[in-house]
Amino acid sequence: MIQINVQPKLIKQLFVITILISAILPALADDDDNSTNAVKRPIEEVFMTDLVYPQAKGECEFELSSIYQNNRAADTFTMPVSVEYGLSDRWQVEAEWDSFINSHPRDGGTANGIGDLELGTQYSFMNIAGSQFHIAPRFTVGIPLGDVNRGLSEGFMEYEPAVIIARDFPNLHRTQLFTEIGVNFVQRVKTPADEDDADPAAHELDIGAGFFTPFEHGAVSLEFNCVNNTWNHHGQENQLTITPGAILKIPGGGEFGLGIPIGLNRQSDRYDVIAHIIWEF
Questions:
Q1: How far is Cα 51 from Cα 168, in angstroms, rounded to an integer?
Q2: 152: Cβ–Cβ under 8 A, 6 or more apart, which residues?
């Protein structure tokens, strides 16, 4: 049985946040949702950064991914499964679960099993004041379901408010520039039996930026991402990656994508391989 102990004060804070979101967003969602209907969604997803586009009301997106990570500590293969659902033409809810993880550390031994769960919501403001700018605040909560003793989870509850800002360039083959900035607040709720294996409970600054250019049957993309927690609680993470990617549209409303994140410093993975397939219904 999985036991997670969360401080009562934190529960109260999350309860207040939930009440505020529940009160404010439905009211905003009633405000002319038809404005997003005019925005054609060129692609569904990129690879390391969230996009500003919401799911349409009643629309569901299912995504199956495979991620191979090659770093100095281990080779890891992960299969995340995610679902997004549009509550309105601006407001969506989402869930992502690492349904399977296989980790092979350099020092020997192999661990496999389930990973963590992430729940989130996003509200998108498209073509603000008739411009080519879009903005989307979002909030996600990460729940540690994986085994910390086998390296399948870091054992943190994670709370990440973030904002995505994007700008379209219709005259440049409908290219879009996008930026996502978030702060990931962590709270340790599961500790390994050997406490020396526990990572510092340091909050993270997550920054992603890039562009995609759509074509008739797909798109190309490029992303730059920075994850850093060295600024607090003796954090040791400072990852810089650049990710070229390609997306191919599949007949019937699907999409296949392949991205190759490449580490730009010694603390980053040498390289990763991300493949995803997406269906909408």
A1: 12
A2: 101, 103, 111, 112, 113, 114, 115, 146
